[in-house]
Every structure is written in C-alpha cells, then in structure tokens.
Amino acid sequence: MAERRVGMARVLLVALTLALSGCATGDDTEVVLTIRPGSSFREAADSLAAHRVVRFPRLFGFYAARRGRDRSTRYGMYVIRRGASWNGILHALQTGEEIMNRVTIPEGWPLWETLPVLAKTLELPLDSLEAAVRDPALLARLGIPRRVETTEGYLFPDTYDFPKGVTAREAVELMVRRFESRWDPAWDARLAALKQTRHEVVTLASIVEKEAVKDAERPIIAGVYRNRLRIGMALQADPTVQYALRQRPGRVLLRHLKVDSPYNTYRNPGLPPGPIAAPGLASLKATLFPAAVPYRFFVAHPDGHHEFRKTYAEHLEAIVMVREVARRDSIARADSIARDSVARRDSLARTEPSPTPSPAPPR
Predict the structure, then answer these.
(1) How far apart are CA 86 and CA 63, in angstroms?
(2) What is the pLDDT of residues 313-346, one digit of tens each?
(3) Cα 73 from chain centroid?
(4) Helix (H), strand (E) at residue 33
(5) C-beta separation of 143 from 158 below 8 A
(6) Do 212 and 221 touch, CB atoms closer than 8 A?
(7) What is the pLDDT of residue 21?
(8) Rounded CA separation 170/162 (Å)
(9) What is the pLDDT of residues 12-43, one digit of tens each?
(10) What is the pLDDT of residue 363?
(11) What is the pLDDT at residue 93?
C-alpha cells in the first residue's frame, strides 16, 4: 500500500512538473540576474526564484534533471522575462541567448582605450567600432564640428549591460544615448552664460578629467583653465600633448611639447578641436560651474593633489617646493624599506635553529 502511495505521488509530481513547465504567463517584466561561474544548477534555480522568474525552484530543478538539462548551464548575466516558460528559461540558460555582456568604461578613457575593450568583450571587429564612432549622422546629431572626426568624449563612462549579439553601431548608440541622458537640459542656459557650445564644454571637461585626482579640485582646475582662456593664455595642458602622442599618463618631457598637432595646447592657444577623453559627470559639472579663483598656474604633487598659484614667479617657487617634498618623501621611503629589510633579516636570524655541531672525529 505504501509503495502504491509513493508511486502515485511520483506520478502526480511528474504531472505537476510537466504542467508547470509549459506554462508561460503574461508578465513581460524583464529581470537581470547573474549565474556565477561554478554555480550549481540548484543555485541557479534559487536565483531565478529570488527574482520571481520561477515560483517552485525545486520542481524546476527536478524538471531540468529529468530532461538532462541541468548540467549545461552557461554562466553570465541574463535578462529573462518573468513570464517565460520553464522550457524557454532552460533554453536560455543552455544557449546563452539572453546573456548580457557587462562592460565598465572608467572616466578619462580615450577612444583608443575604450574601443579595444568593447571589441574584446562584445566580440566585435575593432574596425566596425571605429567606423561607428565616425558616423557622420551621429556626429551631426551631437553638434560636433566638421573638423572633428569621431565621437571622442561622448561615449559616456559608465557600466553597461550589452545584450548578446549587439552590433557596433548599437553599442556606440547606447553609450551616446547615455551621455545625452546625463546632460541636464538646464545646462543649456548655462552654456549661454559661459558663451560656449556644448562641444567646447565637453572638450574642456575632458581635460579637467585627465588633470584632476581629487574631486574637490575639479572646479578649481576648471577655474584655472577658464582664467587662461579669458586672457588668451595657452592652456598648456599636459594631457592634450599625451593625447596627441597617444601616450598614457606619465611625465611630459620638453621634446614632447614640440609635437605638431592641433591638440598640443602648448603650441596652439585656446581649446583643442575636441575632447581628449570621456569626462564623467563630476568633471562636466565642474566645467559648467567652475570655482571663482584667481589662479592661473598649478603643479601636481606625486599623490595627485595640486598647488595653485596666481603668478608665474609663485608657480616656479611651488615647483621647487613640490620637488623638494617629493625628494624628502623618496628618501623617507627608501629609509623605511631599508629598516624593514634589516628587521626581517634580524627576525629570520633569531628564528633559525642554531647549527648542530659536528661530532668529534674518533681518536
């Protein structure tokens, strides 16, 4: 009798599972969930239940096991409808059709750093992405001057979840739309007050982004550059030279300042033709609302914070002071390393066992 009850229960369980497996609801709500590498199917089922994609995770696991589809899950980030059938969910987990590709683009990255990352993550040809950022219609929509050939500065730095199979044009369009959504329409009135175009603000913001390490200094750096622009002084921004040379951040030497490029702000007064990187929201705001400061010069400490000065003579004194501080810090670090090395050597000497004396030779 007991065996018959167990058999009936199994039949009912199978029947219930089969009934649930084909039932799709009208809920088109999409949820984003991640199936981590190394997760068991049970963990995947629990995650689906936590996001209310399946209501009965144990039954769902039982159904997948009976169909032999619980051992071929593809890991990744998925977008799945809450109303999907169990068959549809299993198909997505096995084929990866609903996998999203997450990409994070940091503030201050130029296109020549951004595009290779997109190409690798999204499995897209690099030349397709390069063509997409040169789309004339997109450049015109953004108000980019004709002398500028790409959407440099307008692929907003952020974290993106790209759907599987996204094209190069779709990826670039999504990132440009993110920039457009972050641009506050109220800022257009501010442009008139500054007597600048949006493109000019984005260009200056990209320089501020590359110069600033401390958030509190962004409005001050923006104010210094506006002071230089107002009096017709060259911006003399090292990051623009590095951009012209496709050089990563580092020391800019005197020979670098001779590079023949419209982006060399040591040789060309005013703003460069376009942005040199993708500015984040903080740099855009700092450029639109710079600090009212009297400074025209600044020099960076090794840790990234700056000394700001009004006159060139004061600036030269600040350079000497920064170099002396850096020299003292370097000596202090070397002394600290030497002391640590001696301390480790002494510690090892104390912990090592004393050598066992050799037995005396027989007489």
Answers:
(1) 9
(2) 999 999 999 988 878 766 766 656 666 665 566 5
(3) 28
(4) strand 30-35
(5) no
(6) yes
(7) 47
(8) 9
(9) 445 444 444 445 556 778 777 777 777 788 88
(10) 43
(11) 76
Close Cβ partners of 99 (under 8 Å, ≥ 6 residues apart)? 74, 76, 77, 78, 164
Q: Count the helix, strand and coil residues of the chain and give each as a percent rounded to the nearest 5.
A: 50, 10, 40
Structure tokens at 363: 């007489």
> CA 203 to CA 275: how far, in whole Å?
4
Phi-psi region of 52 (alpha: psi -120 to 50; beta: other; left: phi over 0): left
Contact indicator for 109, 156 with CB cutoff of 8 Å: no
36/138: higher pLDDT: 138
Contact 26, 83 (CB under 8 A): yes
Residue pointed to by tokens 């002084």: 233
How is residue 57 written in tokens? Answer: 């995770």
Compute φ and ψ for 148, nearest 5 degrees: -100, 130
Mind giving me the DSSP string for 126-179? HHHHHHHTT-HHHHHHTT--TT--S-TT-S--SEEEEETT--HHHHHHHHHHHH
Q: What pLDDT, on a 0 to 100 scale, did the predictor assign at position 16?
A: 44
List the one residue out of 213, 347, 338, 350 whose CA is nearest residue 283: 213
Instruction: Give the Cα separation of 236 and 242 in Å (integer).
Output: 12
Rounded distance, CA 199 to CA 195, Å? 12
Q: Is 264 left (phi over 0), alpha (psi -120 to 50) or beta?
A: beta
Q: Is pLDDT above 70 for 292?
A: yes
Q: What global pTM score does this model have?
A: 0.71
Higher pLDDT, 91 or 113: 113
Task: For the chain, list the domains and their CATH numbers.
Answer: 19-97 (3.30.1490.480), 102-182 (no CATH), 190-293 (no CATH)
* Tokens coding 22: 């084909």
